[in-house]
Design brief:
The complex is a heterodimer. In chain A, 78% of the residues lie in helices and 0% in strands. Chain A is mainly α. Chain A has a single domain, classed as Orthogonal Bundle (MetI-like fold). In chain A, helix 6 (119-132) crosses helix 8, helix 9 crosses helix 10 and helix 10 (193-231) runs antiparallel to helix 12 (249-277). The relative contact order of chain A is 0.11. Chain B is of the alpha/beta class. Chain B has helices at residues 50-58, 97-108, 114-127, 143-156, 173-190, 201-207, 245-265, and strands at 6-15, 24-34, 39-43, 65-70, 73-74, 82-85, 161-165, 193-198, 210-214, 222-227, 278-279. In chain B, helix 2 packs across helix 3 (114-127), helix 2 packs parallel to helix 4 and helix 3 (114-127) crosses helix 4. Chain B has a seven-stranded mixed sheet with strand order 6-7-8-3-9-10-11, with helices on both faces. Chain B has a four-stranded antiparallel sheet with strand order 2-1-4-5, with helices on one face. The chains are: A mainly alpha, B alpha/beta. Chains A and B meet through helix 9 and helix 10 of A and strand 6 and helix 2 of B. Bound molecules: adenosine-5'-triphosphate and magnesium ion. Adenosine-5'-triphosphate is lined by residues 15, 26, 44, 46-52, 217 of chain B.
């Protein structure tokens, strides 16, 4: 594939966005307040707000834009437990993600190092990792709530359990596949185990470890929204659920956009960190 | 006769067979010595076990039987006194040329200040002619430059013994020749004891005092020791004009082409692995 000129791609992106918003705006103009028949099951799903408020039309881009502007101008207000600014909710979510993710990194990287250096441990722990890894993190939620008895800590635990596997697997794999000749260099230079670990194995495995960290942050950000929808209280996931109960689609669309942008920023930060430790052989 | 400075005493190396059969013997009952300050080359066909012997000398691999004794002490692992120049240069790709050398210097002198390490690195970088490329990563260096960094790194720990596994085989003829001259000069100046594996007969004649000829594997043996009687100092430009050069070269080539295989099947009667026959083809009969 030939590299396109950045300006051309950027212009095309802007055009596509304008087209999308234009079509959206047009369709929201034409679709009046239709008297759709309300399906009882749907009504049950929609819950309290819909039952009392009836049908709300899908918001137009202008309405959503106005709502986004409102949120952006005052992101950090707190007016009671159920009415807090989107910035506050985002901070809750980010705090949980970073706590669970940070603890996972503190456990997974040293453990992965040890597993990667010992073929015996690698073989012994691999079956457990292979079984635990594919479990949906949300499946741990009831168990976490039951044992921890605290919804906030439970969501941190769920973040921990979902981010630990890619980190662990990548660290162990990266450490185990350090080129033998580099280890031989360290041996002929009579490097201590610590010096070999920090000056040879760590930099050699760093790109693989960072890739694991990047995969993990992506998963953690996906999971936190679902976890917060489940346990409620605070956080961007709860915000979405709450606005769904209020049937405020403009707020939900705002939140979706914010979730996407924050996820992208997190991913790009780790991509930058990965590039910083990459090397060319 | 006393023990040589490096004394290889009856080493064998066996690898477990892949199909559960008896272990595969790469070589066994290998005896030879290297005197202090001597340059010894090992020549043999691919797969006969040359790298395995060098790795055992380096302490990176263990002999299944026998021992290697250096300066009267049996070795039991790698040592800063036995530096290795690897065939694949084995530079750490995330470090610059200078940092690769600094890594070695700091290993030898853990207490040195930053400035002292930097000064020592400079010295070696200048010596191998890499001043302009000191800040480059290995991926940005040519094959010859990488091998130069490898040479500087090995020498910068000031070893007593230099072990080289086909250090120049991946290089073009011109670069190889220049590096051969450099290694020849440095080894002579620093009175290093050197052991080099090579496929290149001219390289062996240029550098070595003695050349060990190894038969084909499996069960490879060191069949013969060729003593290089050509006078030193030798340079790449004049060595092939020296009287006796052709006889020396032909003798080794004959071995590689023909006798390495015949001898692998049956050794002559009376051949004793502990007293390998020495030949001096360059000396007129
Ligand atoms: N880890 C190993 N396991 C099993 N067999 C091995 C192992 N390492 C080497 N061998 C065998 O030992 C023999 C000698 O290998 P070695 O690398 O010493 O050969 P070499 O003489 O250096 O060859 P080349 O000139 O191609 O480098 C080969 O037949 C190889 O298959
Ligand atoms: Mg080899």
């Amino acid at each position: 594939m030939r590299a396109a000129r950045p300006l051309a791609s950027l212009t095309l992106s802007a055009l596509l966005l304008a087209l999308f918003i234009g079509i959206w705006q047009l369709s929201s103009l034409t679709s009046g307040a239709g008297d759709a028949v309300v399906d009882p099951e749907y009504a049950a799903l929609v819950g309290a707000a819909a039952a009392s408020g009836g049908q709300t039309p899908f918001p137009s881009p202008l309405q959503v834009g106005a709502r986004i502007l409102e949120h952006l101008t005052d992101p950090f207000y707190v007016r009671g437990t159920n009415d807090q600014g989107i910035g506050v909710q985002l901070a809750y979510s980010l705090g949980r993600v970073l706590t669970g993710y940070g603890i996972a990194a503190l456990v997974a990287i040293p453990l992965g190092f040890v597993i990667g250096m010992s073929p015996l441990l690698y073989g012994a722990l691999n079956p457990f990792i292979q079984v635990l890894r594919p479990i949906s993190p949300l499946a741990w939620m009831p168990l976490a709530l039951y044992t921890i008895k605290d919804s906030a800590v439970s969501s941190i635990f769920v973040i921990f359990i979902c981010s630990i596997w890619p980190m662990l697997i990548n660290t162990a794999f990266g450490v185990a596949s350090v080129r033998r000749e580099w280890l031989n260099v360290a041996r002929t230079l009579e490097c201590s185990t610590w010096r070999t670990a920090f000056r040879v194995i760590l930099p050699a495995a760093a790109p693989t470890i960072m890739t694991g960290l990047r995969i993990s942050i992506g998963i953690a950000w996906l999971v936190i929204v679902a976890a917060e929808m489940l346990v409620g209280g605070t956080g961007i996931g709860y915000f979405v659920w709450n606005q769904w109960n209020n049937l405020s689609l403009a707020d939900i669309l705002t939140a979706i956009l914010v979730i996407g942008i924050v996820g992208m920023v997190l991913d790009q930060l780790l991509a930058m960190a990965t590039r910083a430790v990459s090397y060319q052989e | 006769m006393g023990r040589a400075f490096v004394s290889v005493e009856g080493i064998a190396r066996r690898f477990p067979s892949t199909h559960g059969g008896p272990p595969q013997t790469v070589f066994e009952n290998v005896w030879f010595g290297i005197e202090e300050g001597e340059f010894v080359c090992l020549i043999g066909h691919s797969g006969c076990g040359k790298t395995t012997i060098l790795n055992i000398l380096a302490g990176l691999d263990r002999a299944s039987e026998g021992a290697v004794v250096v300066a009267g002490r049996e070795i039991d692992g790698p040592s800063l006194d036995r530096a290795v120049i690897f065939q694949s240069h084995a530079l750490l790709p995330w470090l610059t040329a200078e940092e690769n050398i600094a890594f070695a210097v700091r290993s030898r002198h853990p207490g040195w200040a930053r400035a002292q390490v930097a000064e020592e690195c400079r010295r070696w970088i200048d010596l191998v002619g890499l001043s302009a490329a000191a800040g480059k990563k290995p991926a940005q260096l040519s094959g010859g430059m990488k091998q130069r960094v490898g040479i500087a790194r090995a020498l910068s720990v000031r070893p007593k013994i230099l072990l080289m596994d086909e250090p120049f085989s991946a290089l073009d003829a011109l670069t190889r020749g220049m590096l051969q001259d450099e290694v020849n000069r440095i080894v002579a100046e620093t009175k290093l004891t050197a052991f080099m594996i090579t496929h290149d007969v001219d390289e062996a004649i240029l550098l070595a005092d003695r050349i060990l000829l190894m038969t084909n594997g499996p069960n490879a043996k060191i069949a013969e020791v060729v003593v290089n009687t050509l006078p030193r100092p030798r340079t790449r430009h004049d060595v092939h004009h020296l009287p006796g050069y052709a006889e020396l070269r032909n003798h080794i080539l004959d071995f590689l082409v023909d006798r390495s295989q015949r001898l692998a099947e049956t050794m002559p009667s009376g051949w004793d692995p502990r007293r390998i026959p020495e030949v001096r083809p360059a000396v007129p009969a």
